[in-house]
Amino acid sequence: MTTSATGRPLIPQPPATVAALRQAVAQIAPAALPAFTRELDQAADQARQGSDLAPLRRFVAQWAVQVHIQRHPHLAERLRQLEDLAATGDADQARKAASEIGRILDDAHAALATPPQR
Predict the structure, then answer these.
(1) Alpha carbon distance 69, 14 (integer Å)
(2) CB under 8 Å to 96, separation ≥6 — which residues?
(3) Interatomic CA distance for residues 94 and 97, integer angstroms
(4) Cα distance between residue 19 and residue 112, in whole Å
(5) What whole-number distance in Å separates Cα of residue 21 and Cα of residue 24?
(6) What pTM, to 2 d.p., does this model score?
């Protein structure tokens, strides 16, 4: 994954639909496709069981944020580093990493005008 010399995103942000997000994931983060499919299946099952579209809405919002981040390779790499640090660092490092992860996710939600999933 690389960006242009101007640092522009790899692809435009796709519409927040399952089909468009699946295509974007396939293009910029193909290793994440199995997780995308598994989580979509789970959300669809939950929606059917509860006769409620909320699980599917959460799925689409979550993956729109993931695509937003993955479109920017430097940001995606930083997020991976922070996740590793949160999992392997001491308590202070983990706390600082978690805080920065939260800021990255909040910024992505803000850019997409979606409420953060808490």
Answers:
(1) 12
(2) 85
(3) 5
(4) 17
(5) 5
(6) 0.86
